[in-house]
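This section describes the prediction task in plain terms. A model, or a person checking by hand, is given the sequence of a single protein chain and must write out its three-dimensional structure as a string of tokens. No templates, partner chains or ligands are provided. The sample shown here is typical of the held-out split.
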Amino acid sequence: MRPSRNGPPPPTPPRVPPGPRRTWRSRLARLDVKGAPYAFISPFYLVFLIFGAFPLVYTLWVSLHDWELASGTRKFVGLDNYDYLLTDADFWHATVNTLGIFAFSTVPQLLIALLVANALNRRMRLPTLFRIGMVAPLVTSTAAVAIVFTQMFDKDWGMVNWAIGLIGIDPIQWSSSRGWSWAAIAMMVDWRWTGYNALIYLAAMQAIPRDLYEAAAIDGASRIRQFWQITVPLLRPTIIFTVIISTIGGLQLFTEPVLFSVGTPNKMDGGPMHQFQTITMYMYDNAFGHDRYGYGATVAWALFVMIIVFSLINFLAVRRTGGTK
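The expected answer:
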């Protein structure tokens, strides 16, 4: 049966009152909640853009030019500087020197730092004094350190040649021989940075629960086995960090070899035969010594790529060795 057309109309739905209008204060409060975290971290990105990203991009732009500071030449040459770099024997000679000094210094440095940190982690008298002594090389002037080590490795009057002469070894020409100069500079680097890495390892070791060592001691594990089976595996993230930082510092080595060449006509040559000239020294010599600013920027970018590649290789090697994912 159909409803009558003259029946009562259907009830109308209740009218919902409109919501409160957003005022400028509510909008400002909402903006403050959402934008405050970005405002807090913005100083870092501003500093990075000014002192990190911009110089990086600008150096890439300069490397594409025949750029001379004295004459004001600004000629775009594209990738010609990079083509020349690949066939530049002096650049590859400096690369071999850098990698040699890096290998001589970094591997012993991290191993000694790990052993020193393990010794400092044990109970001893005056532990704070010994730990503070680890940072003494860092607060010492690099120039003073280089002068002392240069005198120590002097061929005629150096203390090292005097000491090895007591056991019948002939004097070594530390600054003239390629391999021996690498070893001398590596000792200088190790003396300065071993304590720094040891303190990093020590801080990580103190975060390891002591219960693990007590349980291992109850099971009959010696201290050496505890070190290799407990300490080293749990220090793997810290070891990766120090390896990457040491790689960056080792490939950028500049101050120590420059000061080691005191007395030579051009300190950036790294000796008369360029036997310890590093990439940074070669870059500086081209940019400011020979007024080849564009090619110096090319060497800088090659070093930047090399640091990234070697850091990734070291990271993957350490991670694969430890079996982490």
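For orientation: The first strand starts at residue 65 and ends at 67.
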